[in-house]
Amino acid sequence: RRSVCVLLEVADTGCFQWKLFLSKKICCSDDTMESLRQQYLTFLQTKNFEKKTIALYDYAFRSFIKGTGVTDVSGLRELQTAQIQSLLVFLSERLCLNSRGTVFPIIRQILSYLYTAGFISTDFSGMILTPAYKKTHLRPYITASDEKKLFRAMEEAPLRTKAMMRLGLRLGLRDIDICCLRFSQIDWKNDQIILEQEKTGVTIYLPLL
């Protein structure tokens, strides 16, 4: 369907402008739920959210309806803890960890909105906890043998290039700090480099190699 939309726009205008494809069709089979959804989207517009943000909240709202199994507005007033748990399982099976970290807080906000607006009798937002982010990969590093290979490969390189490579490998300086390094930042008497890091603004003292 999206490919057809792209082709039609190119045929009409000769070019294509990248944008979100927002469906304008009714997403809830029950009229009362669709009315509530439109009311919620209007509420988001009053918050001056961008269209892509509203689209994300709309996705979370529709996932909430599907995950809890609620079919109409009257069913919201009978919402139970077990349905919230089913919603969490429903989302966890479909979203990766990073996506859950984005959608879960929105679900929590939706529950608070429904409670404040009187659509649900209990504020279940406290049940929605943002999953902790866990790094699933190790930081890359250069082994001692690889470092030796680098230095051997640069034997014929200019002294300036060698110095920049050594500053990065031995002192761990960021590329921006290496590029901005000045002779005035070198304390020749005490054999040290004194510089203010461009990224953090923190002054560091490093040994002169």
From TrEMBL:
Instruction: Determine if DNA-binding is one of this entry's keywords.
Output: yes
- Where's the Tyr recombinase domain? 137-209
Cite the GO molecular-function annotations of the record: DNA binding
- SUPFAM superfamilies noted in UniProt: DNA breaking-rejoining enzymes
Concerning InterPro entries, the annotation shows:
CB (IPR044068), DNA_brk_join_enz (IPR011010), Integrase-like_cat_sf (IPR013762), Integrase_catalytic (IPR002104)
For the Core-binding (CB) domain, which residue ranges apply? 31-115
Q: Name one GO biological process term.
A: DNA integration
Q: Which UniProt keywords apply?
A: DNA recombination, DNA-binding
- Mind telling me which PROSITE patterns this protein's record contains? CB, TYR_RECOMBINASE
Q: Which Pfam families match?
A: Phage_integrase (PF00589)
**Protein name stated in the entry:** Integrase/recombinase y4rA
